[in-house]
Amino acid sequence: MIEEKKNEALDAENEYRTAVEEAYDYVENFDILETITNVGNDEVFTPRKTVDMMLNCLPEEVWHNPNYKWFNPATKNGVFEREIAIRLDKGLEDIIPNIEQRKKHILQNMIYSLGQTKFTSNVARRTVYYCSDANRKCDGLKAPDGHYVNGYAIGNGTWFNNKEGNIKTPNTNHTFVDDKDRIMSESNIGDERKKYKCKYCGISGASKYNDKNQRETYAYEFIHVDQLNLQSYLQNRFFGGDKTMKFDIIIGNPPYQLSDGGAQASAKPIYNLFIEQAKFLNPKYLCMIIPSRWMIGGKGLDDFRENMINDKRFRELHDFINPKTCFPNNDIKGGVCYFLWDKDYDGMCNIYTYTSNEVRKSIRYLKEEGIDIFIRDEILINIMKKVMACSEDTFDSIVSARKPYGLEAETMLSASKYGLPEFSTEKIADGYEILGLGEKMKRVWKYLPLNYPIPKKSPCLFKFKVFIAEAYGCGAIGEIPSTPVLSTPRQLCTETFLEIGPFDTRLEAENVIKYIKTKFFRALVGIQKQTQHTTQKVYRFVPILDFSSNKSIDWSQPISNIDKQLFSKYKLSNEEIEFIEKHIQEMN
Fold first, then answer.
1. What is the mean pLDDT of residues 148-156?
2. How far apart are CA 121 and CA 76, in angstroms?
3. pLDDT number for residue 331
4. Using one digit for the tens of pLDDT, what is the confidence trace for 220-279?
5. N or C: which terminus of the chain carries fewer CB neighbours within 10 A?
6. Alpha-carbon span 484 to 518, nearest angstrom
7. Are strands 464-469 and 485-487 parallel, antiparallel or unpaired?
8. Mapping DSSP to helix (H, G, I), strand (E, B) and coil, where does residue 504 land?
């Protein structure tokens, strides 16, 4: 057998050629907007790739209609407007053959935006008009290297008669009112301001966004106008008061929340307000990208979710379990989604679910009969229906609400902060034991005397039970919870944990822990869990089984065998079993 000799020169040449091609491709496709990072206040810039995906879901006819009015109600860097203009420039070639006339028509008469802030308005105009002043003409002043010092706008500044063009700088303020709808005056200072809330976005009158010393107040214009006046407001803003004008296509990536003194999960969502305003305008098409947390409700989103899932005008919904597919530099808990809403459509929705390595499509209504949330995967719906058909009690009935003993997480570090005696680090004979998080977020046990003033006495206190972490993961299906803890009588916990029980025997609690570790259990939890928090409600699709014996399920078997018994009990199909085995991580 003749051994082939390695051609090192050829390999080196190929490596060089590949490196050159990669560098050329980078330069050719380099986009300055991709280098701009988020500027705070929950302003998530949209990558061009994500914008392209959203534009791809629009019907082809939109690119060939010169009469449509496009509107972005909260532009950041102008990437939507730029990519829309590029596609329209191609789509209108046959209708407006002259290049300059076509570009002028597109920018003058088709594309409109409200800036999210003063800063982003300037950035967007710079992207679309080549200059932050839409009407800046070339002044002829050149630098030594030959370029024009001050720059000039597209069309040499002659296409618009004002600096803003069709990309308007926001000019609204928050309107702070009390519970009797009285407007806050300048004399209201200090703690008095906390009594007032913005009537539009809900932030506190004492908020940092009400500080006159900062340049931006984040009073997003589109949602700080009364809904009944919105149409005429925009007609005045963009069309000189022409009552016949309206927007045909509304598209964008609205601000998601206002972090008014809380963490991401506790901040006030506002993207729902943008969608409600947009729907009220009744455009032909509406396309927006938002967090997927609305699908199960959450803070201030229950009514919004109910309206969304009952709306049959959604043509497409693209749901990304991993948000980094759309926003590589952002960790948006629970994933993101974008949709196409068509005012003339009435039917089932094409739903695309994107996981790490596949895309699954289903055609169905967003609303499932008898279910008040949107379930992200059709296979999970089928599994859930088989479980519900058995009419068994559900696990949420034995899971506690938050703070089962009324104790904050920080009491483990400083109980006196909450007016309570400090916990002991030494065991107390015939006392209580408490589980929580100590230094460096490590699980620790501390000790309390029997006369300790526990704020709330759970019925599980003198029984066997299971403690399970209230928060873990980020909302992806099948996540592995922190190790559940078997708890004996006289043991309690802080709000870091939820409590499952009570049980009369240790064996029952041990079998519950085995149940929690099954893939079947965690698949059903995944129907409702879309954030890191696992409230009592998250367990409402999980059936309660007989944990006291091995009659229905042989709990003495390994976890994988218990799963097989559960698959058989609920008559899961091969496809459903394969889905669970593939998407739910094993938990030893």
1. 88
2. 7
3. 81
4. 999 999 999 999 999 999 999 999 999 999 999 999 988 654 444 457 899 999 999 999
5. N
6. 13
7. antiparallel
8. coil
Q: What is the pLDDT of residue 33?
A: 54
For domain 32-172+220-376, give the CATH number: 3.40.50.150
Average pLDDT in the 183-202 region?
Answer: 82
Residue 502: asked if its preceding bond is cis (omega within 30°), the reply is yes
Tokens 């065998």 belong to 561
Quote the CA–CA distance of 522 and 515 in Å, as a whole number: 9
212 by Cβ neighbours in 10 Å (0-12 / 13-18 / 19+) ranks as: exposed
CB–CB of 506/563 below 8 Å? no
- Cα separation, 238 vs 256, in Å, equals 25
Close Cβ partners of 468 (under 8 Å, ≥ 6 residues apart): 481, 482, 484, 485, 497, 498, 500, 516, 534
Q: What is the pLDDT of residue 92?
A: 98
Report the DSSP pairing between strands 111-115 and 268-269: unpaired
Do the beta carbons of residue 211 and residue 228 sit within 8 Å? no
Confidence of residue 477 (pLDDT cuts 50, 70, 90): confident
Q: Is the pLDDT of residue 36 over 80?
A: no
Q: What's the pLDDT at 205?
A: 86
C-alpha radius of gyration, the chain, whole number: 29
131-155: string of b/e by CB count within 10 Å (b at 16+)? bbbbbbeeeeeeeeeeeeeebbbbb
Are 306 and 273 in contact, with CB atoms under 8 Å apart?
A: no
Cβ(73)–Cβ(222) below 8 Å: yes
Residue whose pair of structure tokens reads 């739903």 in the numeric block: 351
Average confidence score pLDDT of the chain: 89
Q: Is the pLDDT of residue 528 over 90?
A: no
> Are the C-beta atoms of residues 48 and 30 closer than 8 Å to each other?
no
Query: 298 with 374: CB under 8 angstroms?
Result: no
Three-state SS at 364 = strand
Dihedral (CA of 141, 147, 149, 155) sign: positive
* Distant-in-sequence, close-in-space partners of 1: CB < 8 Å, separation ≥ 6: none
- Residue 330 and residue 325: Cα distance in Å, rounded? 10
Q: Give the tens place of pLDDT for each residue, 212-228.
A: 777 778 899 999 999 99
Q: How many CA atoms lie within 13 A of 147 on its CB side?
A: 4
Cα 380 to the center of its chain, rounded Å: 21
Domain edges within the chain: 32-172+220-376, 173-219, 395-583
Q: Which residues make beta-bridge pairs with 443?
A: 437
Beta bridge partners of 486: 466
- Kindly give, in sequence order, each residue whose CB lies less than 8 Å from that of residue 492, ignoring residues fewer than 6 positions away: 404, 405, 407, 432, 433, 434, 435, 454, 458, 461
**Each residue's pLDDT tens digit, 554-579:** 999 999 999 999 999 999 999 999 99
- Judged by DSSP in three states, 434 sits in strand
Whole-angstrom distance, CA of residue 394 vs CA of residue 524:
11
Q: Which residue has the tokens 């300059």?
A: 100
State the CB neighbour count (10 A cutoff) for residue 15. Answer: 10
